[in-house]
Each structure stands twice: as structure tokens, then as C-alpha cells.
């Protein structure tokens, strides 16, 4: 098994490409070791000292490290944990906890606008963000303001504010006149 790595715009996050499917659909975010109990793969990666976050996409694993930890010191152990997992035959996520679309539900008078927002996020934003090892999901819409949740490499990325304001906000405002602003939300 050959696992490739790619840097991301977030220097604290690396993207690992195991060369096979990680998740059939959706994404899975493990912002701390406490949240990884349903994932044997995430649990193995969190066992590496210095790992602070794990995120799964369709064909990648994004790992975030503590600021005081050097990639040179933990990257071999992370590669080993991923390889060990795939050789074990265990599932990436146990049970029937199938990943969801990631978007928060929204109904009411703005349901049509929210549908358009989610469609643009799914077709234009999320594929691009996945290239950088992250994900952005819809969290809410209130009086013209779209609230988005940033995951994986996007969470804590120095360029995430620029991505939100200059990229996503401009895109949504262009296609959906009711959108006036985009803001990040911490979940």
C-alpha cells in the first residue's frame, strides 16, 4: 500500500491519500479523540501523540497536529496507523452511522433559498474545498446571513476567512441576491 501526502493551505494539517475509498459518501469530522469512538481508523490516528483532529473525505484522511508538534516527528507514525488499519480489515466507521450530507436541516419561509445555498455549496464549493482536505457545510440562514461550518483542513486555516469572504460569499451573493453575508460558525 502506497499512501501519498499533500500539504494543505493550513500548515497544521496534512492530507493523506491511501489510494482507496475512505468513505463511500459524505464526510466524517473528529475534532478530538473523544469523538472518535465509532471509528477504528480515527482512534488509531489519535493514538499518535500530537494529533488534535482527524477528518475523512471520500478518498482522503486529513490530520491536524498540535502547534508544538513537528510533522517530521509524527508523519511516519500516522502513515503506519493508516496502513495498519487497512491491513486489519476493520471498517473506517463502525455500525450503521452512515455519514450525512453534513448540512443542517432548515425549513420555513426561507426553505427555497436554503435549497439553492446547499446546491451551490455541494456543486461548487465542497469539491474545491475537498481538494484542500476539508469541508464546508451549511449551518443556518437568518436575515440574509449564511452561517457555514468549516471542517478538516478548513477549521483554523489562516486563509479560511479570505476563502469565506472573497470566495464563497461572492459566489453566493452572485447567484442568490437574498444572501448579504457569510459567517463561520463553531459547532
Question: What do these coordinates show?
Answer:
The chain is an alpha+beta fold and 187 residues long. Helices cover 33% and strands 24% of the residues. The chain contains 4 helices and 8 strands. It has helices spanning 40-46, 71-88, 111-131, 160-175; strands at residues 4-7, 13-17, 28-30, 51-56, 61-65, 134-142, 145-152, 181-185. Strands 1-2-5-4-3 form a 5-stranded antiparallel sheet, covered by helices on one side. A 3-stranded mixed sheet has the order 6-7-8. Helix 1 (40-46) runs antiparallel to helix 2. The protein is elongated.
For the termini, the CA-CA separation is 35 Å
Work out the strand percent: 15-25%
Mean pLDDT over all positions: 87
Order of helices and strands: EEEHEEHHEEHE
The number of distinct β-strands equals 8
Radius of gyration from the alpha-carbon trace, in angstroms? 17 Å
Query: Strand arrangement, largest sheet?
Result: 1-2-5-4-3
Query: Count of helical segments?
Result: 4
**Could you name the ranges where pLDDT drops below 50 across 5 or more consecutive residues?**
none
The largest sheet, given as strand count, sense and whether it forms a barrel, is:
5 strands, antiparallel
Structural class from helices and strands? Answer: alpha+beta
Shape: elongated
DSSP helix fraction: 25-40%
